[in-house]
């Protein structure tokens, strides 16, 4: 083999090694809580925490709060905040926060309408967030089973519990994924700005943040991510899980959402075969609908009241 071929082979091998290393760094940046450079550490929830009533809302959510703990199916210590509702109520909501957000206070704004109605509120810290163990953020896939198990904990304490799942962003995908498992006791789902699947969301953000094409870096990164999450990312389709949901679903999305592309709303909505409706907030960016629409909470409760009464929910808000 002449020197030119040796040089070419060396270049190719170094390039491949560089691609593999960069893809691993990219995957760790997105998912690894222990990585020096971690996207979750830099996530900005300025809108949420600058909301004028944030401290008061967090205080209301924290009133009489208890800490629940549970061991996940893969051995992780998980924590959730429990705010008791009216003693005679069997209405429960599990509020699922977004990527990198804090729990339980990160869901304070979403909790207010449930507090007013006397609901029991559970605010789990997703794995690799808050007081819950886990090195890798699961982007709503392993978390789906955690949420099913939290529902089981609720029903052990209140066998008559009627549980609603309400999540935003990664939490929105989490609640759709969990509902697709058809857990007993689930009554309805509210999914705010949920993505269609982990791989699709990675691809969207790789383009938006770094200008990277899917091949080859992203395709290598998802191999690492799948290894850490515990399954191939081809199997982590929120849209496919949504097709298996049996309870009514309210889909919410901001029309100006670029972090979870707006078109993902219709893909999940179209896949859903259970009673469904959608609420589009025209001027809302990602995870911003609750702040842009002063009637967000009232609209969610109107949907849930119709679910409980057995009324038709189709076309409730936008003729979709």
Class from helix and strand fractions: alpha/beta
Mean pLDDT: 85
Helix content: 40-55%
Rg from Cα: 21 Å
In N-to-C order, the SSE pattern is HHHHEEEHEHEHEHHHEHEHH
Strand order of the largest sheet: 1-2-4-3-5-6-7-8
Query: What's the overall geometry?
Result: globular
Compute the separation of the termini in Å.
Answer: 66 Å
Strand content: 15-25%
Question: What are the SSEs and their pairings?
Answer:
Blueprint: H1 3-31, H2 39-42, H3 46-50, H4 54-61, E1 66-71, E2 77-83, E3 91-96, H5 108-116, E4 120-124, H6 142-157, E5 162-168, H7 170-179, E6 186-192, H8 198-210, H9 214-229, H10 238-242, E7 249-254, H11 263-271, E8 276-281, H12 289-292, H13 296-309
Parallel strand pairs: 3-4, 3-5, 5-6, 6-7, 7-8
Antiparallel strand pairs: 1-2, 2-4
How is this structure best summarized?
The chain has 320 residues and is of the alpha/beta class. It has helices spanning 3-31, 39-42, 46-50, 54-61, 108-116, 142-157, 170-179, 198-210, 214-229, 238-242, 263-271, 289-292, 296-309, and strands spanning 66-71, 77-83, 91-96, 120-124, 162-168, 186-192, 249-254, 276-281.
Structure commentary:
With 320 residues, the chain is an alpha/beta fold. It has 13 helices and eight strands. The protein has helices spanning 3-31, 39-42, 46-50, 54-61, 108-116, 142-157, 170-179, 198-210, 214-229, 238-242, 263-271, 289-292, 296-309, and strands at 66-71, 77-83, 91-96, 120-124, 162-168, 186-192, 249-254, 276-281. The protein has an eight-stranded mixed beta sheet, with helices on both faces. Helix 1 (3-31) packs across helix 9 and helix 6 packs across helix 7. The radius of gyration is 21 Å and the shape is globular. 45% of the residues are buried. Residues 15-22 have low confidence and may be disordered.
